[in-house]
Amino acid sequence: MLKKELVFRNPLRLMGHETEDILKPGGFGAVLARAGLGKTAILVQLALDSLLRGKKVLHISLTDPVRKICLWYEEVFRNIADQYNIQQTDQVWEEILPHRLIMASNIEAFSVSGLEKRLADLTEQGIFHPRMLLIDGLPFDETARATLTGLKSLAKEHSMHLWLTVRTHRHEAPGPDGIPAPLLNVADLFDVVFQLLPEEKEIHLRTLKGGPSDSDSPSLLLDPSTMLIKDKGD
Amino acid sequence: MKDIQKLRNIGISAHIDSGKTTLTERILFYTKRIHAIHDVKGKDGVGATMDSMELEKERGITIASAATSCEWGEHEINIIDTPGHVDFTIEVERSLRVLDGAILVLCSVGGVQSQSITVDQQMKRYKVPCIAFVNKCDRSGADPFRVIRQLKEKLGHNAVAMQIPIGLEADLEGVVDLVSMKAICFDGDKGENVRVGDIPADILQEALEKREEMIDAASMFSDELMEAALEGEVTEDLLIPAIRKGTLAREITPVFMGSAYKNKGIQPLLDAVNRLLPCPSDVENRAVDPAEDEAEVILSSDPKKPVVALAFKLEDGQYGQLTYIRVYQGSLSKGDTIVNVRTRKKVKIGRMVRMHASQMEDIEKIPAGYIAALFGIDCASGDTFVSPGISLSMTSMYVPAPVISFAIIPKDNKAEISMSKALNRFTKEDPTFMTYVSEETGDTIISGMGELHLEVYVERMRREYGAEVVTGIPRVAYRETITRRAEFNYVHKKQTGGAGQFGRVAGYMEPVSDEDFVFESRVVGGSIPTQFIPACEKGFRARLKKGPKMEFPVTGIRIVINDGSSHAVDSSDMAFQAAAKGAFSEGYAKAGPVIHEPVMKVVVETPTEFQGSVMGSLNQRRGMIVSSQDEGVMCVIEAQIPLAEMFGYSTVLRSLTQGKAQFTMEFAAYKRVPKGIAEELVRKAAEGKKKVA
Question: Rounded to an integer, what distance in angstroms lies between the CA atom of residue B573 and that of residue B536?
Answer without folding.
Answer: 8
